[in-house]
Write a structure and sequence with these properties.
The structure is a homodimer of 246-residue chains. Chain A is mostly helical. The first copy, chain A, is 72% helix and 3% strand. Chain A contains 11 helices and 2 strands; from the N terminus they run ααααββααααααα. In chain A, a hairpin with a 3-residue loop joins strand 1 and strand 2. Chain A starts with a helix and ends in a 10-residue tail after the last helix. Chains A and B meet through helix 2, helix 4, helix 5, helix 6 and helix 9 of A and helix 2, helix 4, helix 5, helix 6 and helix 9 of B. Chain A binds a DNA duplex (30 and 30 nucleotides) through helix 4.
Chain lengths: 246, 246
Amino acid sequence: MELKRASEGEKGFEKVFAFLRERLLAGSLKPGDRLISERELATLLGVSRPIVREALRALTVLGIVEIRDRIGTVVTRPDVSVLNDFFTFALAQQADMLDDVMQARVAIECQAIRLACERANIADFERLQRALARIGETIDEADAGGMADFDFHRSIVVASHSETLTVLHGSLAGLLTHSHRSRRELVQAFPSMKTYLIDDHRRIFEAVIARDPERADATLRKHFAIGDEYRRRAVVGDIDKTSASR
Amino acid sequence: MELKRASEGEKGFEKVFAFLRERLLAGSLKPGDRLISERELATLLGVSRPIVREALRALTVLGIVEIRDRIGTVVTRPDVSVLNDFFTFALAQQADMLDDVMQARVAIECQAIRLACERANIADFERLQRALARIGETIDEADAGGMADFDFHRSIVVASHSETLTVLHGSLAGLLTHSHRSRRELVQAFPSMKTYLIDDHRRIFEAVIARDPERADATLRKHFAIGDEYRRRAVVGDIDKTSASR
DNA sequence: GTCAGCATACTGGTCTGACCAAGATCAGAC
DNA sequence: GTCTGATCTTGGTCAGACCAGTATGCTGAC
């Protein structure tokens, strides 16, 4: 058989994985389809059930398939949340990589805001506006303030209506959560940051509303740069109550 | 034991996976480390070996770990090829995702080129220059031309000296390979693309050399936009031998 | 004829114990 | 001191078994 031939040289796991991969890529297995049972798969491919389970588990962590207890294995619509898993592992091992990850976040957001300028709808605007208002309300609270900040940026990405960007941003932002929070704590100590936070976000919001990609990108970029500057100053203990240069 | 408690409620697979996840995220398991044997892990966690193998296989497809036959299981530096796997599956079922992924690529590259303007060293410049020359040499070859094009863009990202961006770009670019290639085939039919390709890349190169982030970003962005435009025209059959508007 | 209720077949979830092949290791021969 | 081979350990795999629920279909009551 053709399939047999294609997967002859492979070991057990590879055989099963390749078999399912073929079907999935060819489209003969579509989201929603229920796979044949593990036992059938095992006898069909001439391997043992544990091996089949390895392959199914592999597809599960890839988000391709879902194993439902006592129901069966069904093909799912690929969920990007698996990337989160991966990135969490990948970036957890390089702690000094935070600045680097931040670069990726800037990349994603700056592109997202351009798309948002084109694609955002009323609901997106409203969400952004709510997030903006919340930033003002929570400016004195480290925790809630951080969340509001995050939500604002998140709203921009969501407004881009790009699933890929949204997913990437989600996983990157997750990694930056604690650094984000620690940065927010600076706000309490240095009032100049308050106006920076509020004004900057408002400017960004306005640029999106105006559907001006260039301005939005530039403003957002500046926003990040200033945040960076604050952080740098904090590190060297040089920060004071004067505004960061703009 | 603390660990026991944390993983008490979970089923076999989850227990093992969570156990390893903890160690990996906490950093007590670092790349290069060799895990204890499957049998030991099984008895340690009170599960059977097949279950342990499921978990290890799961980590393998996530690129976190590598199972070496008759050697043992070692922690690897996370490899992006996993993402490739995932996206391959994901895109097989949602072809319209390509444009979306492209947005992410644009995001990464535009940020990368900004960093490249700041951080690129002589070696980076030389690599870029070689790639640029190669684009000119292979302008009439679909395959080699595509590779040269890819290498140029890749060189930009590498020159950013950002590991995260490089990693992300690597996985995204892999996905776009075939679309990239099909686009390159247009070159043969429509000579106007040749000048577009050569001139654009040269302009991008010059902007990096000049270490002008704004210009580099803008030029690169325009480059992508024009490529998009070509593709759009090809789709609607409207393309002709005139240059795309610039 | 219809429908509720239960038995059975089937599903995934797991375990046990076993065998194989080949790298790693160390004792013993030279 | 070096080399060789037996042994230990490793991953790779298999077969068969049990459990706990789901789905289904059959049976019997209405």
